[in-house]
Amino acid sequence: MRTGKACVRFKTFQSRSPALNSKPNSMFNLDSLCFFKTNLQSAIIILHPVSTKMIFKKNLLCCFYGNNSFKKQRSPEQSSPYSITMLKVPEHQVAGRQAIDGKLGPLIDNSGHFYKPLQDDDERGTRELTFYHSFSSNTRIPHHIRRFFPVFHGTQLLKASDGSGLRPHLVLQDITSDHLNPSILDIKIGSRTWYLEASNAYIQNCFHRDKTTTTVSLGFRICGLQIYNESGFWKPERKLVRNFTADDVRSILRMFVSSNVGPEPDFSFADSVYGGCDGILERLMELKTWFEDQTMYHFCSCSVLLLFDKESFLKGKTPFAEVKLIDFAHVVDGNGVIDHNFLGGLCSFIKFVSQVLADSKGSTMED
Amino acid sequence: MRTGKACVRFKTFQSRSPALNSKPNSMFNLDSLCFFKTNLQSAIIILHPVSTKMIFKKNLLCCFYGNNSFKKQRSPEQSSPYSITMLKVPEHQVAGRQAIDGKLGPLIDNSGHFYKPLQDDDERGTRELTFYHSFSSNTRIPHHIRRFFPVFHGTQLLKASDGSGLRPHLVLQDITSDHLNPSILDIKIGSRTWYLEASNAYIQNCFHRDKTTTTVSLGFRICGLQIYNESGFWKPERKLVRNFTADDVRSILRMFVSSNVGPEPDFSFADSVYGGCDGILERLMELKTWFEDQTMYHFCSCSVLLLFDKESFLKGKTPFAEVKLIDFAHVVDGNGVIDHNFLGGLCSFIKFVSQVLADSKGSTMED
């Protein structure tokens, strides 16, 4: 819900209102906007809220009306008589295609939803949607496994962030929405990101990438990350991330649970975040046990996302560390065979995390 | 030890004895042979023992003197005054290069030794020897894991079976020697048989083979097998084995523990061979636990060999089922990372075996 006097600039706009179409890139305050909206259906407006300087700098925002039709709502708390759902580029997206510079990418709202555009090349979109439909209705998924996956709310036709017009978006749980300043690791699991059903060009492309990253050697690769510290987020460039070695991975797993960023991590949060019955290792082991048995899906090119919010931790909130699976555009039928590729990579990653936890204990004992 | 009156025919022969060199393809009885041997050093003689018709048909035998020099031995039990070690082509070899038709391959003796020629292309020989040296002296290998590996007795210079002259051979435990009519499965574990250190040509070759067999899809492939039944061994051609599908693999795992060979296996031995605390599944789980932890070696293109001797079983002998690891020509340094490729494939194979065991129990309940 967004109301008030924020000024907005229309960047791209298509509506049935001649008044609005004639004023692209104009400035409006939000009350004016609401007034205009009463005349609109299914409008998507990309705007810059100049009153929020940080957001203005970082994100390109858009707002739209829920359910493809404008609904007039009134409540005592609302200073404006109209309901508006704000969409913006995810602030904490660390990997994958981003909705910036006119590109197609996911958007989020302020209600904990993540809108992922369905990709139409390589049948990825269909594949991911098929997976979510299958998974959502699959009664063989244990409850404790389901919580590793973002909640699926269906699809919604939204104007794509690349200006290409209306496009179906998966409506998913925004798994970062409960975190203020989350440190995040996005780890693509498996020593092979291609699959037999894929095109030859796709296989060759993945084959090359797998060999030149840590995918083949470690059974996983870090795709993106951000680590929060007092001075803000450390979010290395993609090119740097792509060249990570095994030693870099170890360093990052140490930094992830340290209050300092540097060559000598203090492991402040290692025991709480990686260890213990609510820790990341325990979650990963739960996943591992499931992957040793399930033969329904093969999760090619899928990521494990680790989230850890230092501020939540310091305030004693739980869960302060989460493990989620994301990116199912390359999930294929398991055909009665376990996902040995994912499982092997997951076990390798578990070993890395275990070693960092052991190092942290050694480090504490030395202190 | 081979003595007595067996007649032998020299097929190829090179020695320092002009008397012998002048008589290729001649017939001698073993006493005569022993007499000639007193004049020889490091002789290898390929012979056909015409007195043993089955062996004559199946194998090409050779005999040689231990330690590259002839030693005169005498004991009350020996009818001949001379010690002879007989070498022959392994009767139960189900995969890999075979010492037939003038090709280079392994030989065995009657004392439980397996002589594997060191391959000199692609540095395979050096790699396998390095592995055996490293593994033999590695104090971090638990005892219960060491027994999965053939015992290594060093190397010996022997005349190669392809007639190329003297060549170093690994002297290993012949793991089939305790079995009379072993049913054997040779399963190459891992969804990738190549490794980053290999040549591009080798990688491309493996990449193609992995995609066109079950290696990529199942995380392992059956490389060879023989299954014993009343009418003898069923030992399918390599071309047939190479085209096995997932369903073929399931069928073979069923046939392996059945007394009949056909579309409706009786699972007679399933519970004893796959199940129980001495069963194959338990052994595989032990291996799995080790692979989840060990970061010393990556066992590329290595096989798990399952051996099961129905006759031993029927006579109540144990162990009647064995699990061994073989073929270490492509073992590379683990560099502190677990062998996620082997582990994933092993877990997939474990799942297959578990499912056959479960099927067998369902089948028994239906009966």
TrEMBL record, chains A, B:
Enzyme class at the top of the EC tree: transferase
E.C. no: 2.7.1.140, 2.7.1.151
Entry annotated with the keyword Nucleotidyltransferase: no
Signal peptide: none
Pfam family, one: IPK
Keyword set, alphabetical order: ATP-binding, Kinase, Nucleotide-binding, Transferase
Catalytic activity: 1D-myo-inositol 1,4,5-trisphosphate + 2 ATP = 1D-myo-inositol 1,3,4,5,6-pentakisphosphate + 2 ADP + 2 H(+); 1D-myo-inositol 1,3,4,6-tetrakisphosphate + ATP = 1D-myo-inositol 1,3,4,5,6-pentakisphosphate + ADP + H(+)
Keyword Secreted in record: no
Entry similarity comment: Belongs to the inositol phosphokinase (IPK) family.
Function per UniProt: Inositol phosphate kinase with a broad substrate specificity.
UniProt-recorded name of the protein: Inositol polyphosphate multikinase
Origin species: Gossypium arboreum
Organism lineage: Eukaryota, Viridiplantae, Streptophyta, Embryophyta, Tracheophyta
